[in-house]
Specification:
The complex is a heterodimer of chains A (about 270) and B (about 260). By secondary structure, chain A is of the alpha/beta class. Chain A has 10 helices and 11 strands. Chain B has a 6-stranded mixed β-sheet, with helices on both faces. Chain B has a 4-stranded antiparallel β-sheet with strand order 2-1-4-5, covered by helices on one side.
Chain lengths: ~270, ~260
């Protein structure tokens, strides 16, 4: 096997605070090929910061360190701002949770997609093709709409169309479907699924939904307190052994169970020791 | 305890009007826990807001504990209270917990404020130490506990819950669901729970109604839901989609009007 698409070793993100440094991500390591990797965890687990670190899109006062952070053989830690700009959007894309906040409200959605591919021939045609690829029925009409005129599900499909238009090698999707209804969520996931299979794109899928990640991804990292608790094949997430993963799985209500009390999660400070 | 008949809610006028709820009817017995489940735009929250007296534009019949909702009856606030989805939005950021909890008592002219506030805080598992904190000093789960305590200050018979855990992490969701079950037992509450999450409804409710596009698609008991044997195709699709990602299910999804 050749070198993986992405190599992350001992990634750390630290924020200075008046009471001393706060370690938000502490020693995360993984590699990614042309596959679907899920990162799950609760709020504050560091999963979103891990995703953003790969694009070096962190607040100015955050400190990013890693023993190794390489994308397709290129060192992301030493890349110049200019080199990073050449990667962002073109080769590594990011889809965020809520299309309401990530689309420009005063620009037609089609023009926003075309802008992402403006240095190629006929951006408008490419934008229309992308709208069709994310299964929007009437691309010509939707092209001319403003973000407030589209539903949440359609907004998220537009975001995905925009991010995929430049044909990136790696897509980082941070809770891309959690604002959507379950049936729309399924359709959006099917689009991502096809694109990974057809184009051989790498996908990092960040989510708090364990069931969704275990059914959609190939591998899963479970994060807590800025650390990876456990890495598993997605299909056997239910067989997880780490007490944190087990605790999360047990605390989920299920349609077919009749437990009176849901077990609550007991956190162990030992999990965060290095 | 709750009677709703032919409830229709219309927003806007003329050709641009939208009927958010159409001829909705259901009955909830005393002490029962009833779920309203559906996707966004199904009208489930609209129905809840009518019962809470937050939406005056509707036709049909609605009574809670024998009190008509339409008449802005002064007994209504002591009969029914509501807990909202997002505890980051439903608590005033510059009011202390104490102020949030004493306000309903002051409006209703109920004395003995201090002890009642402390008792309510103990009841929801927080304790008196939280009385003079501001919302920004609380976690999401703690805020939702305060919102539940506020809803219980007037000792209502009915609690309306609008997606009470969907803004929370799963481990915190488990704690809040356990708390709601315990409070229901302790106070003999009747619950009306709105959620898009079928598992939460299955865990909390005795019976439920499935809504789509403003209408009730079907009503069933929780045993039918657990066996996954709904009558309507719409509900079957919802159940399949809730089970996690499946390529074939995704390809077969249709829109029901």
């Amino acid at each position: 096997m050749s070198t993986p698409l992405l190599e992350v070793e001992d990634l750390r993100v630290t924020f200075p605070t008046p009471t001393g440094p706060f370690h938000a991500v502490r020693g995360v390591s993984f590699t990614l090929g042309r596959e679907r990797l899920g990162i799950v965890g609760e709020s504050g687990s560091g999963k979103s910061l891990t995703g953003r670190s790969l694009l070096r899109l962190l607040p100015a006062h955050a400190k990013l360190e890693a023993r190794r952070l390489r994308f397709d053989g290129k060192d992301l830690l030493t890349a110049s701002p200019r080199e990073m700009r050449a990667l962002r959007g073109k080769r590594i894309s990011l889809v965020l949770q809520d299309p309401k906040y990530s689309l420009n409200p005063v620009m037609r959605v089609g023009e926003q997609i075309a802008e992402a591919v403006r240095d190629r021939g006929d951006p408008k045609r490419r934008a229309l093709e992308m709208l069709e690829a994310v299964r929007i029925r009437d691309p010509e009409r939707v092209y001319g709409l403003y973000p407030h005129e589209v539903s949440g599900g359609m907004g998220q499909r537009i975001m995905i169309a925009m991010m995929l238009a430049p044909e990136p090698d790696l897509l980082i999707a941070d809770e891309p479907t959690s604002a959507l209804d379950v049936t729309v969520q399924m359709q959006v996931l099917a689009i991502l699924d096809d694109l990974v299979a057809k184009r051989g794109m790498g996908l990092i899928f960040i989510s708090h939904d364990l069931d969704l990640v275990s059914s959609f991804c190939d591998r899963v990292l479970v994060m807590y307190g800025g650390r990876v608790m456990e890495e598993r094949h997605a299909r056997d997430l239910r067989a997880a052994t780490h007490p944190y993963t087990r605790g999360l799985l047990n605390s989920l209500p299920r349609i077919d169970d009749d437990r009176a009390e849901l077990p609550t999660l007991q956190r162990d400070p030992e999990w965060l020791k290095e | 305890m709750i009677h709703v008949r032919d409830l229709t809610v219309t927003f806007g006028q003329g050709t641009r009007s939208v009927r958010a709820a159409r001829d909705v009817s259901f009955t909830v017995a005393k002490g029962e826990s009833f779920g309203l489940v559906g996707e966004s735009g199904s009208g489930k929250s609209t129905v809840l807001r009518v019962l809470a007296g937050l939406n005056p534009y509707w036709t049909g019949e609605a009574t809670v504990g024998g009190v008509a909702v339409a008449g802005r009856d002064a007994r209504l606030p002591r009969m029914v209270q509501m807990v909202f989805q997002d505890p980051y939005a439903s608590l005033h950021p510059r009011h202390t917990v104490d102020r949030a909890l004493s306000e309903p008592l002051e409006i209703q002219g109920i004395g003995d404020v201090g002890p009642r506030v402390e008792r309510a805080l103990t009841d929801v598992g927080l304790g008196p130490a939280f009385r003079f904190r501001y919302p920004n000093q609380l976690s999401g789960g703690q805020r939702q506990r305060v919102a539940i305590a506020r809803a219980l200050m007037l000792e209502p018979k009915v609690l309306l819950l609008d997606e009470p855990t969907s803004a929370l992490d799963v481990s915190v969701q488990a704690e809040i669901l356990n708390l709601l079950r315990r409070l229901r037992q302790a106070h003999g509450l009747t619950l009306l729970l709105v959620s898009h999450n079928l598992a939460v409804i299955a865990h909390m409710c005795d019976r439920l109604a499935v809504m789509n596009r403003g209408q009730v698609v079907e009503e069933m008991d929780v045993a039918t839901l657990r066996r996954q044997e709904p009558r309507e195709a719409y509900t079957r699709q919802l159940l399949l989609a809730s089970r996690g990602y499946d390529r074939e299910v995704a390809a077969g999804i249709v829109t029901y009007d």
